[in-house]
């Protein structure tokens, strides 16, 4: 092939016989146009081969024509002037293809999906990210129109639904921006670009914005907590002081109520005032938990102390707390504010006790507590075999004011979440409704 063998020369002569009426300039233009068409629909390696093969054919073609003309006219054949126009054209085409290939490589490496439809509705370009999202190879997609894409045998049903929805919202309703969520719960933003400068082409960009959504939800959570802080401050100033005065006067009236046989009234009033004060205290803590005063504490002794504080309450509710063997955890120290973390652990265990007390099933309630080192954290596992939680409850579990208890304030877990975050830790929860719930609290090692 490199030297133009006899079989290639024969092909060139046959082609020359068919196009001997064309001028040299027309031949060059026709050749360049056809080669551009071929290279636009093949990979770079295949295009380079086509370019090299075409150069050989073309030179052999022109040589055959000029040789025949020279022999008829008795003139010597000079080949360089014949090659020069083709070489210039091939070099220009090669440079254009290099630039095109460079930009295509950039598009292939982007973390966004890129799809280009030409003015006829054919998909002329698709990058690897889009092919990965559709779970179909790139080569099987390029050259398809929308209808061919929808009936493509390799395309899954969920992807067909997404494409139809995008067609409806971006093309029919002419929305330049559209968000959707796939079957795995990930969020995507689709941007459509079209203008007079694009000669009728449509450029689709598909960006995974799941992380931005998570940040947005975190910001929304912080806004709610900021509002909560203002409410808590107002409640503290407007209600706490009057409640203190009322409590004092009730205590002064208590002897007189005892004489009238109405001591129960005083007891109920004082209990309700104390309950209101507890709610206000939770409001104040949820608005701004104090900065942790950290100290290095052995996790084993902390968990043993928390179990001692809660095991009597658990026994009263017919539950049992099982603390795993922490002999291996004796050397694990955590840098924490003991008072705040103890508040979190007590809250978790009491929630587990209530979940077990509420179930009233024919099985014994068991709360298992364990700890182990995970990288730079100590993970504390608190698991119960209570009533569990639905997925909708899990999604809102740490939201302020959200509660499933009849008399709950919905602030305990919200405060716990903030405390763990202030310590540079993590808190996670998993549950199966009717079977179990597990909280995982990760605290930084000392």
Report on this model:
With 446 residues, the protein is an alpha+beta fold. It folds into 4 domains: 6-107, no CATH class; 110-208, Beta-Lactamase, CATH 3.30.450; 213-287; 295-444, Heat Shock Protein 90 (2-Layer Sandwich). It has 13 helices and 12 strands. It has helices spanning 6-18, 24-39, 44-73, 80-108, 128-134, 146-150, 157-172, 210-259, 263-287, 299-316, 338-359, 391-395, 412-422; strands spanning 113-117, 123-126, 177-181, 187-193, 202-208, 295-298, 319-323, 333-336, 365-374, 377-384, 426-432, 436-444. A 5-stranded antiparallel β-sheet has the order 2-1-5-4-3, sandwiched between helices. Strands 7-9-10-12-11 form a 5-stranded mixed β-sheet, with helices on one face. It is elongated and about 135 Å long. The mean pLDDT is 76.
Mind telling me the C-alpha Rg?
38 Å
Number of H/I helices: 13
* SSE-based structural type: alpha+beta
Rounded mean pLDDT is 76
- Share of helix among residues? 55-70%
How much strand? 15-25%
CATH homologous superfamily classification of the largest domain: Histidine kinase-like ATPase, C-terminal domain
Looking at CATH, which topology of the largest domain would you report? Heat Shock Protein 90
Reading the helices and strands in chain order gives HHHHEEHHHEEEHHEHEEHEEHHEE
Strand order of the largest sheet: 2-1-5-4-3
User: What is the domain tally?
Assistant: 4
Please, what is the oligomeric state?
Answer: single chain
Residue runs with pLDDT of under 50 for 5 or more positions: none
Query: How far apart are the first and last residues' alpha carbons, in Å?
Result: 72 Å
Secondary structure tally: strands: 12
The gross shape turns out to be elongated
Q: What is the CATH class designation of the largest domain?
A: Alpha Beta
Question: Major β-sheet, in short?
Answer: 5 strands, antiparallel
């Amino acid at each position: 092939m490199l030297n133009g063998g006899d079989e290639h020369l024969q092909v060139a002569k046959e082609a020359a016989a068919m196009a001997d009426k064309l001028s040299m300039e027309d031949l060059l233009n026709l050749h360049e146009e056809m080669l551009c068409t071929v290279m636009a629909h093949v990979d770079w390696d295949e295009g380079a081969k086509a370019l090299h093969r075409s150069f050989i054919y073309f030179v052999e073609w022109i040589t055959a024509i000029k040789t025949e003309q020279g022999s008829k006219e008795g003139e010597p054949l000079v080949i360089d002037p014949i090659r020069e126009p083709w070489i210039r054209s091939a070099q220009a085409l090669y440079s254009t293809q290099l630039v095109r290939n460079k930009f295509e490589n950039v598009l292939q490496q982007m973390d966004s999906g890129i799809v280009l439809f030409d003015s006829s509705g054919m998909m002329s370009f698709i990058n690897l990210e889009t092919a990965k999202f559709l779970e179909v190879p790139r080569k099987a997609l390029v050259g398809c129109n929308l209808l061919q894409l929808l009936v493509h045998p390799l395309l899954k049903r969920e992807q067909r639904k997404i494409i139809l929805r995008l067609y409806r919202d971006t093309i029919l309703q002419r929305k330049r921006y559209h968000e959707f969520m796939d079957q795995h719960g990930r969020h995507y933003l689709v941007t459509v670009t079209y203008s007079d400068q694009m000669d009728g082409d449509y450029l689709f960009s598909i960006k995974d914005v799941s992380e931005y959504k998570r940040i947005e939800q975190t910001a929304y959570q912080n806004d709610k907590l900021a509002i909560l802080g203002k409410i808590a401050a107002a409640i503290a100033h407007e209600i706490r002081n009057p409640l203190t005065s009322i409590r004092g006067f009730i205590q002064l009236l208590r002897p007189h109520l005892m004489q009238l046989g109405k001591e129960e009234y005083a007891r109920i009033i004082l209990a309700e005032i104390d309950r209101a004060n507890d709610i206000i205290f939770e409001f104040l803590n949820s608005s701004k938990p104090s900065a942790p005063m950290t100290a290095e504490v052995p996790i084993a002794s902390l968990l043993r102390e928390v179990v001692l504080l809660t095991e009597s309450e658990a026994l009263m509710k017919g539950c049992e707390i099982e603390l795993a063997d922490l002999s291996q955890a004796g050397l694990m120290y955590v840098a924490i504010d003991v008072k705040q973390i103890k508040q979190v652990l007590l809250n978790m265990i009491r929630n587990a006790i209530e979940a077990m007390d509420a179930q009233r099933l024919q099985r014994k309630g068991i709360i298992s507590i364990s700890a182990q080192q995970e990288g730079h954290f100590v993970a504390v596992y608190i698991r119960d075999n209570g009533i569990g939680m639905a997925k909708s409850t899990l999604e809102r579990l740490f939201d302020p004011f959200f509660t499933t208890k009849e008399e709950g304030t919905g602030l305990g877990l919200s405060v716990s979440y903030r405390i763990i975050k202030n310590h540079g830790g993590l808190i996670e929860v998993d549950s199966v409704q009717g079977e179990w719930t597990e909280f995982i609290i990760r605290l930084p090692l000392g």
